[in-house]
Amino acid sequence: MLRYVKWSAIVLFWAVALAVLHYTLPQNDVVRVTDTYEKREDFGRLNRFFWTRADGSVTAQSNRDVFFIQTREAGGDVMVYRNEDTGWGWPPYFKFDSSNLQAIAADARSSAETPQWMAITHYGWRLEYLSIFPNALSMRPVEGPDVTLVPWKAIIILVLLAAFAWAVWVRWRRFRAARIDPVLDDVGDSFDAAGDRLSARRRRIGDWWRGRRD
Hints:
It is built from 3 helices and 5 strands. It has helices at 2-24, 98-107, 152-213; strands at 27-42, 63-73, 78-83, 117-123, 135-141. The longest helix has 62 residues, at 152-213. The chain crosses the membrane at residues 149-170. This is DUF1523 domain-containing protein. It holds the Pfam family DUF1523.
């Protein structure tokens, strides 16, 4: 039973960790901007934590004005991005130029007949039933919808996270070998010694009892 609880906790931990990474890490989309607008957005209990304030902290207001960027992908699918500053909050992208990005997006609008393809760097998810939108971080023009975009930012962040995790693990192993394992060995030796004394006492009692019966 404990084994199932242990593996369930491990699976849950990694599922949450991967979900946080997938939401937070920057991703790139190649799209055509069709429109930009500003809308008064009402925040609900289920989606308010997916929005940010101007200072980048988790929103506490019930509603406010938000920039949006409407786009279409090469296959025709629609993708809508919000355009909010992250400020000094989470994720730590230190974005303060949402107004400038909105101006760039408005200038990049194009039609299907004469498309201008843009690479949008963003984080987050698009969940229609919860009114959750990915947050656009930056955008730049590219040659076409089939251009190859290497996610260098995500790769660098993952490498830094892996290096940090490795450093923590190595220090934990050293601390455990120096401080915890000797204590556990002493406890184990104490239990073994106590068990040996108990066995010896039981043997003496058994010998005494057999001597009386004889």
